[in-house]
Amino acid sequence: MTRRRWWVVGGLAGLVIAVAAALLIWQSTTRPPTAEETAQSYLRALESGDSAAIEATGIEVTDDALSAFAGAERWIEDARVVAVTENDDGTAAAEVSFRLAGEEQAAQIPLSFADGRWRPEAAALGTMSATTTVGDFLAIGDARLPAGEATPLLPAEYSVTAAPTKLLDGESTLVVLPGETTDIEIEAELRAEATDAAQQQLDQHLETCTAPGSSPAAGCGIRIPWGTEFRAVSEIRYRIEQLPEVSLTPTAFSAIDGVLVATVSGTGQDGAARTTTYRTDSWTVRGDVSFTADELVLTAW
To answer: What is the pLDDT of residue 18?
Structure first.
């Protein structure tokens, strides 16, 4: 065989090898990930705190859970897939291990095959069941979550605080593991800022209460004994000399020691026009206190 023919044969062999290699690469990049590879991708995304990578695995996860995950104290470490069992019904279970909160953890990641790909199932999340002694909301990072409800979260370690955080103190650490429900209670208490916010809100409310009118507004603590002197009232004008000072409990408020002057005009009991001024040095307002996720709400009686 001539040298030229050897070159031709050698060239064809090289071409065949190159085509085969390219075909293998194409197949590996175009086929859907296996159950094991999907579980590995989920673990890598949890390790890196990458919300986009978590969503790319196809797992159903809420925006609140992703927001909480972004504010987690610690993500998992040293994660690996130990074994994968695939079933004939299109489901699989990946046995995994990782470190979280300084401890070795073992868990199971359930997966299902649909629409041509494997996806982690919702049970690959964990669940928080948290209550708070004050208010109805909790905060994890920028996420605001309802207390007293089962809330799915991504596996991680979280600092959970009572919300609104600017008005309430109270914090607890939560470790969320795949497929497990963790119960915690936040021992919350009022911050000084809560009283300031309540005073500001009540002051605004009482400014509205004391707009001129023909009768005292409800929920303002205003009681004028004009019944024995007036047959009818046409106008009441107010002057606030001192606003009541607020004190709070987690569920109620009391505002005392206000000074209010009311000038009443109308028709006296004798049928003549009459104007009388009343003054109280003990103007008092009471009511309920509640909290949204971001603010305090007063409801005056």
So the answer is: 41
Token pair 């024995």: residue:
228
User: CA-CA distances (angstroms) from residue 81 to 43, 52, 59, 61, 98?
Assistant: 8, 21, 17, 21, 9
Burial class (CB in 10 A: 0-12, 13-18, 19+), 212: exposed
Whether the link from the prior residue into 212 is cis, omega within 30° of 0, is: no
Q: Is the pLDDT of residue 61 over 70?
A: yes
Residue 243, helix vs strand vs coil: coil
Which residue, chain included where needed, has tokens 């990072």?
A: 141
Q: Who's near 108: CB < 8 A, 6+ residues apart?
A: 93, 94, 95, 96, 178, 179
Each residue of 216-250: pLDDT tens digit? 999 999 999 999 999 999 999 999 999 999 999 99
Strand partners, 110: 93
Question: pTM here?
Answer: 0.83
Q: In whole angstroms, what is the distance from residue 176 CA to residue 173 CA?
A: 10
Say which DSSP state 155 is in.
Answer: S
Pairing of strands 189-190, 137-140: unpaired
Helix or strand or coil: residue 22? helix
Asked whether the beta carbons of 268 and 232 are under 8 A apart, the reply is: no
Alpha-carbon 237 to chain mean position: 44
CA distance 227 to 55: 69
